[in-house]
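Practice problem: predict the structure.
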Amino acid sequence: MNGHTNELLEEIDRMAKADDQAINLDVNINSTKTNPSASGQQQTRGEAIAKVLKDYVHFVEGVVVDNGIQVSDSDLLQKVVRDRLV
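Answer:
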């Protein structure tokens, strides 16, 4: 994403390490709900959030690359600001 993917992923990792609250997750792949469970996979809250964010970053990067989208940082910022204000 404009050559900043690694920076985004590094920042996500940095933030994940700062949130070390342990959680247990029992993920049902047939549901959108995630339920706490003693039998689930133990990880930190930061790790769980980081995984979702990283998956999303990779998804967006794939869309950008597959469609040959080339937008400068300043053009992208202007579009986001313009879309939010209109």
